[in-house]
Amino acid sequence: MKQWQGLLMQCARSMGLDRGHRRAAYALAGVGVFWAVGLFGGLRILHSASSPMTTLVVLYVMLAAVALSVVVAAAAIAELGRHAAARRRR
Q: What 3-state DSSP class applies to 85?
């Protein structure tokens, strides 16, 4: 478990989320908006695809965006958790 936390902290540092809990909260809110847009009709773009190759490319781009959003959300949650633990220790 410590290895995962270390990896998430390193991701948070590289994304600049360790500079304050507000950045992490904004990143988490952005991921939430991304998922809400996807849930409420973001996949509509697949209906307008003109060829199978276009559909495949769009699906790969969506897969990359989903994977990146999961990493950002995990790093933001880890940073917010670290900040909350630091506040409790004070």
A: helix
